[in-house]
Structure formats: C-alpha cells, structure tokens
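MODEL INPUT / OUTPUT PAIR
PAIR INDEX: 1
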Amino acid sequence: MPAPLTAGCLCGAVRFEVTEAPTVAYYCHCTRCQRRTGTAAAPGARVPPGAVRVLSGEDAIRRYVPEEGLPKAFCGACGSALWAETRDDGEVAAVRLGAFDEDPGIRPSYRQFTAYAAPWEPIPDDGLPRHPGRAP
C-alpha cells in the first residue's frame, strides 16, 4: 500500500486515514450491525493497531458501547458508521468498508454471525465461508 487510504463520513465532518493495509475484510450479519446500519450485513475491514489517524472532526465522533460486542464510532452530525474499537484500549479494530473514499484493495473473505441473518435478504451464494457466530 504506497499511500494512506483516506476515508470519512457522509457529511464530511469526520475525515481519517488508514496508514497500513487492512488485514482481512468480512461481512457481519449480527442483529446489532443490522440495526446500526439498517442493512442485512455490515462489511468491515480489520486494520492493524495504530493504523487509523483522524485528520479532522475528532469532536464530531460519537461512540456507542453495547453491553456485548465492540464499541462503535459514528459521526454525530450525519450518523455515518466509521469503525469498531477494541474494548480494552479503544484502538480502532475494523473500519467500515463504505467509509473509504476509494477501493481499499481488499474484499470480504467470510461471513460471520450468519445464524442471525436477516430473513428478508437471503445470504447470496457467493462461496464465502459462513460462520454462525464470530469467525475464528
């Protein structure tokens, strides 16, 4: 990855960059992701610790910390999902693929929490491995 990947929210209040290549991408079908995004699955890309740097809009970033699962960061102005953070140190763990400005160069390679898949949108027969819970 020769240059940082740039990303941001819908309204432009939050801008950030990913300075190291994402390690893996996936689709999450859990009910929390469904409700958070309004979609059947949320595509994300795991990133190395310390790889995300906020360029502008730090004051617009809000967080939702569920009882289970990872804290979720979003733009307080437009509501765009940005990333998930680790519980122990708040490091960015996974960036939402839709936040990237351009092709991040990685494709989802598995589906997790398929036991909770939305009944109104069947999981496509795309050959990706399916995990009923969190992927190993």
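PAIR INDEX: 2
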Amino acid sequence: MAVERHKNLLDAEQAVLLVIDVQERFASHIVDFEKMVANIGILVDAAALLSVPVVVTEQYRKGLGETVALIKSKLQSDVGNFEKTCFSATGSPEVASHLAHLGRNQVIVCGIETHVCVNQTVHDLLRLGYQVHLVTDALSSRSSENKLVGLAKMYAAGALPTSVECCLFEMLVESGTERFKAVQKLVK
C-alpha cells in the first residue's frame, strides 16, 4: 500500500505542463532567455518520460512568431498547441476546455512573461480550482523586477514555487527506477 503524500507535492498522474508563449520574437527582450528555454526543454523531455501531458500557448503568432525551435523540436505529436490573443491562457475557450478534458488538477507553469500572461493565467487557473506550481527557473520577463512582482502576486494568490529539479523529483517519488535514471540524465 502506497504512503499518502502531501497534497502540495506534484503527482505525475495529476499534473500537466503548461508552456506559455515562449516565442521567437521575445528572445532578445527577455532576461536569461536561453537559460529559461533550456530549462523548459528539460521539462518537456521529462514530461514525455513521465507521461505528463504538455500544453503550449502562443500569443498572437502572426506578430510574435512560433514557439522557439529548441522547445518545438521536443514536443510530441499529441501536444495541445493553442494560439491566443488574450493575456490569460484560460481566456481562450480552447485552452480552458483542453485542460478540463485532460482531467488533471495540478498545472506546472513555465514561460513568459511572468508578470503578464503567466500572472493572469495563474490567477485564472487558481480561480478554476487547479493547484498551480510555478517553475521559477523556467519563467522570465523583460526585467527581473517585473518577474519578482509577478511571482509575489501569484504566491499571494496561492500558487506554489518550484524549480525544474524540485518538480521532476517530486513526480519521480523514488530513485532506482528506470524513469529516475532517464530523468536524472536530463538534469545532469
């Protein structure tokens, strides 16, 4: 019989990874963009290994381009990929419906910008009853100050802080398994 875990720990069977607006035209404007993209790449690879669904949003694709190539190349064919024009991802009925259809209650959030699209999405996810985990080393904004403000506001609303390694090892639960070995290689 499995030991019951704390409700704030991620569960691979209840989690979905939401990648918000990591698009080409943001590259030169976002603090530590390359590091953020690399960390999101790790999350996407691990999601595939752990059978965690991935949802990707793109803000105004015509003006801001598609998801950056490094992330796009890692996405499985069953990824939900949605264009949006409202800042909150759940402002798009297609995104909200897709998340509901997945039937999971934990959303791992990464992407940009922390104080705009991520912030508004997280507040709406919390309103809809999801538990939200903010991957702080996979989030960014055009300034560090705006990232900090966005994080503070989301924490105050009930979102939980995490990091790439923290969320992956929570979902793994234990070492010594083949899944552990595969994920461990991603975080070297």
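PAIR 2 NOTE: The beta strands are 15-20, 54-59, 80-84, 106-112, 131-140, 160-162.
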